[in-house]
Amino acid sequence: MILPTPMTRREHFASLAALALLAPASARAAAGARAEPFSWEILVARAQALARRPYEPVEARQHAHGVDYDSLGQIAYRADKTLWPSTTANSSVRFFPLSRYAQVPVEIATVQGGKATPFRYDPLLFDAKSAEMRALLAKSDGFAGFRALNPSGVGDWLAFQGASYFRSSGVLNQYGLSARGLAIDTSVPGVSEEFPVFTHFWLEQGPEDSLIVYALLDSASVTGAYRFVNRKNARAVTQDITLALFPRKAIAQLGIAPLTSMFWYGEGNRPQATDWRPEVHDSDGLALLTGRGERLWRPLANPPHPTTNSFSDHNPKGFGLLQRDRSFDHYQDDGVFYEKRPSLWVEPRGDWGNGAIVLFELPTDKEYEDNIVAFWSPTAPARAGQRLDYAYRLNWIADEPQPLAVARATDVWQGAAGRPGHDPIPHARKLVIDFAGDDLDRYARGQVDPVIEIARGTLIEAHAYPVAGAKGRWRLTADIGRGRDESSDLRVFLKAGSTALTETVLYQVHWNHD
Questions:
Q1: Among 184, 178, 209, which Cα is nearest to 197's?
Q2: Is-contact 105 57, C-beta < 8 A?
Q3: Where does the pLDDT of residue 153 fall: very low under 50, low under 70, confident under 90, or very high at 90 and above?
């Protein structure tokens, strides 16, 4: 949603306060940690004022490269220095040191009563096991980010660290996929992706056991003001996010509410596995609830080359990267527990207009590489001098984001086409999808039909039938013939008469994996 740029009287006075905050950090530090006026309006005005200035990236601290994964294990934030310590609230905060993985310091302040007070870096906030690590901490001049602790003090449920990345361990207390403040030119061919950075954070204890985080975003192309209202309960971690963006220049592809995850292999692409574990992924599918109310499911893939899929929509009702498979037996990993990785669902607020959910998939053969990105890309171009406002809620959950009125897809397999015990059909692939839903038990074999639409391929034959011995479970099988292109796109669901019984599965067959 685009708003006009002229400032109101209120915004004008807010901008005066923001300009004072644009002074170099060193100048403000020299004056001591005094409190300054702070509000959402002041932050928005600061972002707008910053967009009118040349971009000046924060310099990475080279010494931080010496703090690797093993070194981080030797550094601990002192428990007695916890910000807002509590055994019952979710707002206790500790801070991350700079490291090889986050070398750019961020400025952090606390907010109370409309005043912001800088939270100064001090190496004595950390305990280090070696003299080498203590020396590296002494060289540092800032934090890499922060985390919010569980009320027990064991583990955390929310973390902001690196560029504009943040994530939650969800209700199952296991980190997995991440969110970002903004994505720029992620899937534009021939253009390098730009990674905006949260340079400043303001932390505030909010009502109803919430933690409010304000952030200033900066990059060569855009500045932005962000407000996160973060809450955790037994059902979900939610983040109500408000943001105002100010492009410095035209942006080819703007990614709103970007989600980043990892998919190496699952039940549908086992031939790509080189590991003994049956499946390795943080998320197994992209779920979409369109503006018209249609529920779509797109299983994730590990493609042979970077692949972009766009799903056009108007005012989408939701989208997210989900981890539907919650069976330990399907992963057999008792170290990182993929079955506990959170799902992440985006609920847009307000008028998002025309655009598309973009799914960008990269090939990978490693579980520590995020190769999946999903975001909303508005149709209207982003131009210099605009103000762009968005609001949405992130839901870090273990189950479906809302009850489904139809059956859902639970498993998707691929294999050789043709009848078992016979020679496989050449240049063809068999697709098998299982759907689960209590209402499916109302139907007998022969009453349910598969609906399959194929782009760049042919349908050889298809069947739908209840799975023997499995309550509320139906199976669709289809033999797909290869077209002239390197991939085929399928749209699949089950129906009885004119009634759709399942969500619609969108699937992409990559033929050159053969």
A1: 184
A2: no
A3: confident
Rounded distance between C-alpha atoms, residue 362 and residue 258, angstroms: 15
109/146 Cα distance (integer angstroms): 12
Which letter does DSSP use for residue 277 in this model?
A: S
Residue 10 burial class via C-beta count within 10 angstroms: exposed 0-12, middle 13-18, buried 19 and up: exposed
Coil/strand/helix, residue 339: helix
> Long-range contact list for 36-41, CB < 8 A, 24+ apart?
36/115, 36/116, 36/117, 37/114, 37/115, 37/116, 38/109, 38/111, 38/114, 38/115, 38/116, 38/202, 38/214, 39/14, 39/114, 40/214, 40/225, 40/227, 40/242, 41/10, 41/11, 41/14
What tokens does 323 get? 């981890």
- Please give the C-alpha separations between residue 96 and each of 125, 127, 181, 231, in angstroms, as whole numbers: 10, 12, 19, 21
User: What DSSP line would sit under 212-262, residue for residue?
Assistant: EEEEEEE-SSEEEEEEEEEEE-SS-EEEEEEEEEEESS-BS-EEEEEEEE-
Torsion from C-alpha of 162, 163, 164, 169, nearest 10 degrees: -20
pLDDT at position 32 is: 53
Distances (CA, A) of 126 to 96, 156, 162, 361: 9, 17, 19, 39
Mutual angle of helices 40-51 and 9-21, in 10-degree steps: 70
Q: In whole angstroms, give the CA distance from residue 287 to residue 318.
A: 8
| pLDDT > 90: percent of the chain | 89
Instruction: Say yes or no to pLDDT of 322 above 70.
Output: yes
DSSP label of 170 = T
Domains of the chain by start residue, with CATH: 62-397 (2.70.98.10), 408-513 (2.60.40.10)
- Per-residue pLDDT of 197-214, as tens digits, reads 999 999 999 999 999 999
248-305 tens-digit pLDDT: 999 999 999 999 999 999 999 989 999 999 999 999 999 999 999 999 999 999 999 9
